[in-house]
């Protein structure tokens, strides 16, 4: 159960109605869904969470919720997810599939969803989509969000559509994109199209509208624009960010209409995946401002200003309390998502490093779990950074993704260019590489008792792709020996 101070909806003017029946949250592993589930549970709702793959981490994360595995691209699987459901939230988003695939995947998902919901007698759908004026040219991303709304509405199940622009909160894509641009550019380059207006909304207000809509019958089957207190230009928003971050940098205006170099610059400077950066920046060209404020009368509360939303995001970061982050969700068919346990046999290329320590397993494991992010890799950080830059230049995720939290880890969290594949308290941390490599790689830390001591082992597994993959392994082995031995000693020292 969440602490009340962590909940966004404690002051929501609507009343919980858990008697309506079971609520299905889709996209629960994503940024928005991950924040919605605890709020619903805390308000007494029976919640079913839809995920695309079974994992013990889901049970640990949502002990009060029912978990169902289904994929919106597979209509049959949705039918079991919808059994006995009163209302379902549609928070599915395929942007990470990249520009060529996300639009068709999102439309197919929404068609399957509509049909399965209708067949199962679902009473309501609540969809969080994007703001934008259909009479103006829209980016493929904004167009696709509207297409999803149209598809969902074609069925017999009433759909509530909430349309939001930029969402500001700790871990949100927009917040991290703009924050990194402001922090990392020597001067803040403002393209002419950053003069477009938007109406950013804080993540807490988005969640309040999502929950409030469920609890307000007047919202059934209607569409609402949701926004924060301010309508401002992206330029003004970046100035507020610079001010709050204490970044006293000149803002330089560019009248050039070229989009591509700016997008590449943003991709290089921010940890956000390239397809998302691209889509967000394309969306900046469109004015995204609420066309009506009806929702304010139906679910009355004072939304946050842009400054307040940014400040809250910064405080959450400072308190190491980022509950969900854009990096949580990524496509399951991503070629780098293959798990070590899914391989028929362990990779032949393996190297391990061991040391014995008198320190207890808990302290050693705590030190293991501090690696990466702001803490760095304890030693030879320059080498990890160079690898990260090379990765980003090759179109990979780079090292700048950091971590959701500097003190806690859960399965599926990212640590720079790694992702946590397995975590066994005080025993094992298994990381899967998401860097661009001619092969697949894993890094495993194990702690096990040995006589009176604890044995700390670091094992690197590598499955090469062809001869280039093998050359890579042998070429970097001497460096890995230095780096991994050094890392192990540092972990022991900090344990
Ligand atoms: N974040 C924002 O700034 C923002 C702004 C305005 C509107 N919105 C809207 O809010 C909604 C949620 O956004 P988000 O930022 O939370 O997205 P997100 O973090 O990218 O999460 C997307 C979710 O969709 C799930 N998903 C993707 N394909 C699926 C499929 N075929 N079947 C089932 N689940 C699938 C993912 O599950 P896996 O973990 O299995 O991949 C993940 O849980 C979207 O409709 C978006 O348009 C977001």
Automatic annotation (TrEMBL):
Family annotation (Gene3D superfamilies): NAD(P)-binding Rossmann-like Domain
One of the record's GO molecular function terms: protein-containing complex binding
Residues annotated as transmembrane: 471-488
Keyword entries, A-Z: Membrane, Transmembrane, Transmembrane helix
Database matches in InterPro entries: ComplexI_NDUFA9_subunit, DUF2867, NAD(P)-bd_dom_sf, NmrA-like
Pfam families listed in its UniProt record: DUF2867, NmrA
Location of the NmrA-like domain: 22-259
Alphabetized PANTHER family for the sequence: NADH DEHYDROGENASE [UBIQUINONE] 1 ALPHA SUBCOMPLEX SUBUNIT 9, MITOCHONDRIAL, NADH-UBIQUINONE OXIDOREDUCTASE 39 KDA SUBUNIT-RELATED
The protein's name: Putative nucleoside-diphosphate sugar epimerase
């Amino acid at each position: 159960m969440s602490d009340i101070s962590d909940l966004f909806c404690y002051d929501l003017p609507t009343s919980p109605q858990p008697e309506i029946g079971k609520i299905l949250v889709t996209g629960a592993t994503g940024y928005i869904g991950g924040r919605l589930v605890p709020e619903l549970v805390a308000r007494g709702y029976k919640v079913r969470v839809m995920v695309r793959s079974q994992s013990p981490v889901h049970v640990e994360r949502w002990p009060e919720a029912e978990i169902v595995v289904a994929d919106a691209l597979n209509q049959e699987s949705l039918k079991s997810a919808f059994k006995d459901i009163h209302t379902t939230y549609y928070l599915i988003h395929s942007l990470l599939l990249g520009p060529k695939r996300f639009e068709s995947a999102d439309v197919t998902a929404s068609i399957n969803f509509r049909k399965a919901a209708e067949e199962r007698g679902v009473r309501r759908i609540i969809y969080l989509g994007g703001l934008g004026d259909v009479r103006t040219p829209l980016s493929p991303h904004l167009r696709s969000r509207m297409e999803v709304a149209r598809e969902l509405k074609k069925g017999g199940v009433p759909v509530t559509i909430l349309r939001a622009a930029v969402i500001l909160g700790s871990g949100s894509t927009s917040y991290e994109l703009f924050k990194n641009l402001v922090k990392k550019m020597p001067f803040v380059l403002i393209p002419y199209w950053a003069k477009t207006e938007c109406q950013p909304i804080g993540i807490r207000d988005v969640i309040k509208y999502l929950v409030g809509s469920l609890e307000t019958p007047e919202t059934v089957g209607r569409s609402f624009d949701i926004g924060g207190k301010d309508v401002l230009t992206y330029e003004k928003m970046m100035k507020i960010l610079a001010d709050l971050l204490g970044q006293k940098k000149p803002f330089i205006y560019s009248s050039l209409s070229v989009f591509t170099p700016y997008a590449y610059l943003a991709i290089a400077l921010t940890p956000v995946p390239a397809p998302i950066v691209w889509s967000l920046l394309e969306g900046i060209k469109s004015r995204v401002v609420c066309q009506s404020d009806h929702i304010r009368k139906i679910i009355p509360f004072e939304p946050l200003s842009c400054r307040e939303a940014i400040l809250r995001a910064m405080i959450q970061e400072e308190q190491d309390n980022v509950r969900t982050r854009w990096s949580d969700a990524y496509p399951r068919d991503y070629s780098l998502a293959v798990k070590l346990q899914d391989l028929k046999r362990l990779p032949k290329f393996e190297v391990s490093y061991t040391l014995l320590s008198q320190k207890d397993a808990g302290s050693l494991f705590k030190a293991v779990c501090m690696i990466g992010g702001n803490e760095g890799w304890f030693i030879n950080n320059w080498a990890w950074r160079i690898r990260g830059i090379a990765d980003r230049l090759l179109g990979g995720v780079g090292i700048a993704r950091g971590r959701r939290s500097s003190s806690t880890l859960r399965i599926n969290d990212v640590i720079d260019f790694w992702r946590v594949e397995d975590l066994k308290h005080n025993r094992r941390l298994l990381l899967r590489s998401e860097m661009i490599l001619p092969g697949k790689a894993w890094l495993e830390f194990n702690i096990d008792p040995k006589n009176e001591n604890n044995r700390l082992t670091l094992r690197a597994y590598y499955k090469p792709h062809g001869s280039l993959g093998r050359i890579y392994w042998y070429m970097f082995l001497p460096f890995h020996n230095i780096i991994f031995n050094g890392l192990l000693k540092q972990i022991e020292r900090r344990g």
